[in-house]
Structures are given as C-alpha cells and as structure tokens.
Amino acid sequence: MKHITAPERAAASAQACELLNQQKVWQEAGSILFYCALRDELDLSALRKEALLQGKRVALPRFVAEDNRYEACDIANFDEKLASGRFGILEPDSDAPVCSLNQLDLVLVPGLAFDASGRRLGRGKGFYDRLLYDVRGAKCGVAFDHQIQAELPVEPHDIVLDYLLTQTRWVNTGLGTALK
Asked: Whole-prediction pTM value?
C-alpha cells in the first residue's frame, strides 16, 4: 500500500468530493450512506456536511456487536456526536435512529482495492458485503487512484459496485449486482 501524506490525502479528498458533486447519481440522491474515513482512505466528510445543508438524508454505519454486522444510522447534523466503534472507526452513538438499507439512494464504500469491473477488496470480514446485500440504491466504491487494480479475485458473496470514485476518475461499471 502506498503511503499517503496528510496534505496529499487532503488534496485528493477535495478532488474526489468535487468530482462526486458533479455526478448525476449524487445530485439526484435523497439519502446517502457515508463512511468515516480511516487515515488510508479518502475523506468525503465535506460532502457529508454539504448533503445535510442541501436537505439530503445522511447516514453512517454503526456496528451491531450482537449480530456481528453494520447497520445504517441517520445523522441529523454535522456536529452529531460520533464515538469510536469496535474497529476504531467513528460511528453514530446508540441513540441515532436506524435507517432502512433499502431506502438508501447512494452508498459510498471504502476498501483496500477495487477493479474497473466494480469488484472490491475489503478488510477481510465481509461486513460491507453483508450491508450492501440489502441496498437497492447505487453502490459507489471510493479509493485513491493507486488502489485501482487490473482485476481482483471474486468470491460468491462479493457485491459488485455500480460506480468507482477516485480523486481523478469516475467509473460507471455498468454491473452492480451480487455475484452468484
């Protein structure tokens, strides 16, 4: 994995936000599931704030330990209280209302690597694949340019993404279905 400095990450994140903001799928989305970025991921939090200001429904993932899965939770404002979750990722606290996955118009998905066919390599536990299985809206992988690979291996449970966003590219994969 290529090391990204904080200034490089900030610049790439700003570019990715600008590029996503130009896309029809973003403009038409009324409800969006974001993620809280780790240090090695593009940070789209500026768009989270913009989405709230535009009146869009904004959600973030929260880990449910009892079920060993993530759920989507509504965020009412940008200053919403977030806490460090099971994996050290910021997430809504237990008071945040749950948002039905089939009501999401757009889900922004982090990962370790992606390919142009919409395949994603996650962190190895399958949490996002399980979360994405019930999403009817568009699924968009978010990554730095260097995370896009020629081809990734596929497993039966893998969910193929509809779009990929990097700091310089917007890719419509034309697929977006569970591999079976």
From this structure: 0.91
